Amino acid sequence: MDVFLVLEWVIKSIILILFGVVGFAYTTYYERRALARIQTRIGPNRAGPAGLLQPVADAIKLIFNEDLIPAKADKFLFLLAPVLTVLPSLIIWAVIPWGTSITLFGREIPLYLADINVGVLYIMAVASIAVYGIVIAGWSSNSKYPLLGSLRATAQIISYELSLGLAFVGPILLTNSMSMIRIVEKQQETTWFFILQPLGFVIFLLAVLAEVNRAPFDMPEAEQELVGGYHTEYSGMKFALFFMAEYIKMIAVSAIAATVFLGGYSGPWVENLPWLGPIYLLLKIILLLFGMIWVRGTLPRFRYDRLMAFGWKIMLPAALINVFVTAAVIVLLP
Amino acid sequence: MPIHYEVTSVTLDEIKDLVSDRAITGETMLINMGPQHPSTHGVLRLLLEIDGETIISCLPDVGFLHTGIEKSMEGKTYQQVEVMTDRIDYLNTVGNNLAYCLAVEKLVELDVPPRAQTIRVILAELQRIASHLIWLATQALDLAAQSVFLYCFRERELILDIFELVSGQRMMTTYIRPGGLWRELPPEFEDAVRSFIGMFPKRIQMYEDLLTKNPLFVDRTKGIGVISGEEAVRWGMTGPSLRGSGIDYDIRKVSPYSGYEEYDFDVPLGEYGDVFSRYIIRIQEMRESVRIIQQGLDKLPGGPIRSDNRKFVPPPRSDLGTSMEALIHHFKLWTEGYNAPEGAVYLPVSSPRGELGVYLESDGGPKPYRVHWRTPSYGNLQAMPILAKGHLVADLIAIIGSIDIVLGDIDR
Fold it and tell me: Is the CB of B394 less than 8 angstroms away from the CB of A222?
């Protein structure tokens, strides 16, 4: 293995992590500005030109916040929980392809970190780890509101993961592969999968909203009911890590949705100009993020028991039917 | 360095009569909601006993905002008390002024000119709309419909601008005075109110589009927090919270004041007594208020805005330089006040939250001997344990919003 390859991986990883972190900061800005427009407000516009330095100011403030640990909390787990939550949302980026490959300094550099043949499984596996962070956060705080919040979160994430997994099956069947690259290539050959899999796409989007605890499924942190949900007792940078995990996950699931259903990096002229790939993907991510913000600005929150009923009684059967029909059509139509 | 401290807890013995036996054995969870909780609408504390997320019992605990305002009123003259009335129910300031002034007028038998009566009604109905807007905003926010919250505040701002135009103050207006009003309306008043009521019905329709037909909102409000009419009466609920259960009781109709009998308006009634009924009623009431304001503006008579009974109502300042008598009255009224005849009066008005009654007892001196406010929020809150029983924690939030309590109104 040549040393440049390792260097390339390291550089690409750093770029991806930086993208996640900066993306998090500016997604909060984007959300605040977009929500403000929906709600006839202006939004942050004081720090820097058009308020662009607001995320920086927020970060500085959070870092210097007093870092409280409740007296009866389990200190080790209390510290571990935010780390466990934020890490999966960063490593999930490894399998998302940003393009085919570009030539730089005489080297051909693929625009993805890893093309593993179980890409989709990797995403499912990594995304599930985050739930441990939430359970541990709720339990280790040794406080009632976080406990209720984390129980809600766990139940919700586990139930919606089933539908999420089944929504992936359609594209996998159509592609005959679990590699994210193959899924995109297949879409370039045929058409974008949201046309072939409309029901799967809708189920995916709904499950994803629940998976990342976004409105109207933001039960775990329903501040009107549970104060802050599982992160009630957290403050300062530890709180920011939970916040960060949520927003990086938002970007990540948008990227996954774009890759699996909206053709990923593909778009006009991308075959000849591979550097257009990342731009297309980014545009699709921004579009999907806007969808999430829009939903938040419009809809009230689901009630917890209704959410569970919806997940098990409507989403799961619909996802199963979708898988069955897709499989049957593929077998019957050669 | 982290600070170490001992965590102490309340013993279960202190509350064992208030919760079920299962709480003592630890089978159910006791949880404290408030006084520092984002959706208890102030500093309300609820002690909840929950099984999972189902509420077994709900015990309201009030007094965190106690200001002793009723007691303070006993130490002030009748004119001075009025400034404090604004601070009781801070979302219904004009209504509080009106209730107090009507009580004083009844006590000392003062007449109010018709122009002042009409202006009082217009302002009271504007205040009702403003208060219902805050209720709608917070009710929607409690169910996480964030945008409605801000839309409602945008409209409320216009009403506050009208108040500022009239009295110089946005909230604590103190514009209505015993015997009439503080001063004549500014010339811009009528246009400002007309443009508001011209635009507002469309805005109500917009809120309804966002909420009334929204399946998520209906799902969260229908069949939640049900109380029967009889039970609501027994717990002393009044206002929209009572009318939601189908009881036709509005002070504006049953014992009209300030000439409400001359206006043509309906009192909307609910059927089911749930959160959704109470929501629909308040929305309808805003429409009715617009009708009343419209009628008030159309018939606004001319004439004086204050009674000329100089024993109780100060003379205009322009008279002070020319009339010796006016100067004497002015001096007497602003130094020692006026003596009210011995006796007691109770006068209820219809506040946005229900029956707001003022009880004044006079010992013949210039200061009230005893002041008591019968506030609607207190009666409505009493029904909370019944409303909440058996529902989920998430529903509790919707229920608190639906009875529209103001903690300043409860604790006084």
Answer: yes
Please name the member of A144, A224, A306 whose beta carbon is closest to the beta carbon of B144.
Answer: A224
Amino acid letter, residue B140: A
Tokens of B276: 């959704």
C-alpha distances (whole Å) from B303 to each of B91, B255, B260 are: 30, 26, 19
pLDDT digits (tens, 9 = 90+) for A78-133: 888 888 888 888 888 888 888 777 777 777 777 777 778 888 889 888 888 888 88
In angstroms, what separates the C-alpha of A301 from chain B's closest C-alpha? 5
ipTM: 0.80
Quick count: other Cβ atoms within 10 Å of Cβ B2?
9
Whether B410 contacts B82, CB under 8 Å: no
Where exactly are the structural domains of chain A?
A: 3-332
Cβ separation of B397 and A225 shorter than 8 Å?
yes
| Residue partners of B250: CB distance under 8 A and separation at least 6 | B243, B267, B350
Distance CA B173, CA B404 (A): 22
Contacts 24+ apart (CB under 8 A), B23-32: B23/B49, B23/B56, B27/B51, B28/B56, B29/A144, B31/A144, B31/A145, B31/A148
The letter for the amino acid at A189 is E
pLDDT tens-digit readout, B230-282: 888 998 899 898 898 888 888 888 888 888 888 998 889 888 888 999 999 99
With cut-offs at 50, 70 and 90, classify the pLDDT of residue A179: confident
- Residue linked to tokens 């004009």: B94
Question: Domains of chain B by range and CATH?
Answer: 7-61 (no CATH), 78-307+340-371 (1.10.645.10)
CB A208 within 8 A of CB A288: no
Percentages of chain A per state (helix, strand, coil), in multiples of 5: 70, 0, 25
Q: Does A42 touch chain B (CB under 8 A)?
A: no
- Burial environment of residue A92 by CB neighbours within 10 A (0 to 12, 13 to 18, 19 or more): buried
